[in-house]
Amino acid sequence: MNKxxxxxxxxxxxxxxxxxxxxxxxHDSERFYLLVPPSALLAWFILRxxxxxxxxxxxxxxxxxxxxLFVFAIVYAVLFVGSSSLLHRTTWGEVAIMxxxxxxxxxxxxxxxxxxxxxxxxxxxxxxxRPALHLIATQLTPGLLFFLAAxxxxxxxxxxxxxxxxxxxxxxxxxxxxAEAVEFVTNDGVTIRGWFIPAKSTSERTVVICHGLGGxxxxxxxxxxxxxxxxxxxxxxxxxxxxxxDGHTVTMGHFEKHDVSAxxxxxxxxxxxxxxxxxGLAVSMGTSALVLAAAExxxxxDAVLLDSGFASAIxxxxxxxxxxxxxxxxxxxxxxxxxxxLHAGCHLPDVLxxxxxxxxxxxxxxxxxEHDPLIPxxxxxxxxxxxxxxxxxxVAPAAGHGGALFAVGTPFLDAARGLLVAR
Length: 423
Prior knowledge:
By secondary structure, this protein is of the alpha/beta class.
């Protein structure tokens, strides 16, 4: 079998695997990186037909690199989750997934560089036979193009594909409250998991709590205090790509809106007696998902509480990349935005909560720190300006990100209670 036929056979097999895995791995970029290592190994076997000795030699050569990536995944878990997390099986599952993912990314990077060099060497045959020109075209240019493309690519990966921080404790262990583990499926097939925490006394109202980027139920269990002050039950869930829910991809609210809608639908169908009133409470990235979902719900929420939210996903990234020199930032964002959008499976510049908030048919209360280092208070002002009445904005005269509603305190609670009584 000649080389083109082998490549065609390999492409056919990859296509069948791509389609076959869709029910279990619905997100395209996750499925792509899942298939990269076996596809690369199979291509090597088909095209090179190595002997057993050569195969063992390649494995020995690759072992230190693979071990280094595994150590990197462990160190990452220790730094961002804590060393005690290594005592839990779920953390090791995430370490294994991160290790596999970094192997796939390494294969993509190395293969891209090799393909680029081969392509330019082939094109160099048509250039005038000048050593300096050939050096620039076939040696310096691949390195330069690789240097320009690699940082935005890696930045896009870390922005979109996340290490899920597992929930290592329950509400009973953290705050001494009973909780029921729940799960529900979104309309695009993602399983979402969380906790339903009953009110201290019987209540027909539930607060749906939407955490921020990189968070989970455990980290945001303190938000139950707001539900208690509103005499409400609480439904706290992990967004897709977070905590105990499925997936490893973040879209800054574009697909996460389905998670919010599924949470509301779960309450209204499974717990109607505890969901006569439903309040949405969100922090940071969760505000985007909540706004986008609330704008589309056929039956509106009874109130929407937004803490430290952003008006535009792309404007948010400008602030996140503020540590990078201004002269370099345009180069990163020019490539980063399309690469991140490709991995996310959506056009991230279209994630615009400020364009959707006017369609929310419920009272909206916004809180924000005046000196928020991540999302400036101007974002809250933009959201407030576009929201329909009734609405309120409270800015806490302090620095911080997330939790401004606690800093505002009584005025926020009085406004929330007043709106709910009126409903």
